[in-house]
Here is the input.
Amino acid sequence: MSGLAKAPPSAILTDIEGTTSAIAFVKETLFPYAERALDGFLDAHGEEAEVAACLREAARLAAPGEEVRQALRRWMAEDAKIGPLKTLQGLIWRGGFQSGEIEGHLWPDVAPCLRAWARAGLYLAVYSSGSVAAQKLLFGHSVAGDLVPLFGGFFDTAVGGKREAASYAAIAQGLHRPPQEILFLSDIAEELDAAAHAGLSVCQLVRPRDGTVPCPRHPQAPDFPAVAALFGLPVPRLAA
Ligand SMILES: CSCCC(=O)C(=O)COP(=O)(O)O
Ligand SMILES: [Mg+2]
Here is the structure.
C-alpha cells in the first residue's frame, strides 16, 4: 500500500464521478440530458466558434465512416472521456443547471467535509474529465448549494489525461506545491496509480452504492470523513 501522507496534506485534489458524486447521477441524469438535447443544441449553435471547434475535433477522432453525431452518442454510451464531447456536454448542461432542472449530486458526506477542510485552510481543487465549465456548474448548482467559492482550482483533461503521471506533476506545479502535500481522491485505480507515481498522496473512495472496485495498492475510504480520519484532516462540526 502506498500514498499515506506523513504529515497532513495542505491541498486536496478531488475527482467528481464516483468520488464526490454518484456514478448513477452522471449516467442516468447528466448523460441522458445531453443525449436528448444534442441535436437541438447542435442545430442551434453548431456554427458558433467553440461548438464548431468541438465538432471538427470530434470528427477527427470519430471512427472511419462514422458520422460525428453518431460518434458523440457512442462516446456518451461508453462514458468515453473525449475532450470535445466533454466540452459539448458542459455547454449543453448549462441551460439545465441554470434553470434548476438539474442539481449537482453530491454524496451527503462531501459538502460538510469540503467546508470543514476549506475553513481549516486546506487548498481545494478539482480534477475531472468533465470540462472546467461543467465542474463549476455541478458545484455551483449542487444539492448543498454553491460550493464553487470553496475551490481554488479546477482542472480538466486540458492538463493531460487522468491516467498519466505527467498530468498530476503539472497540476502540482500549477498549484505551486510539492506533490507530496497534495492528496488526490478518486474511485479509479489507474488514476490513483498515476497520481502516486507523480508523488501525490492518494486515497481511493470505495463507495458501496457506486460499486467501486477496491484497489489494494492504495489507502481506501468509504466516504470523506473516513478520508479525514486516515489523513489527519479536520472533520465537520456536528450540528447541535
Ligand atoms: C461536471 S463533470 C460531469 C461528470 C463527467 O462528465 C465526467 O466525465 C466525470 O468524470 P470524472 O473524471 O470526474 O470521473
Ligand atoms: Mg471518477
In short: The chain has nine helices and six strands. The pocket of magnesium ion (ligand 2) is lined by residues 15, 17-19, 186-188 (CB under 6 Å).
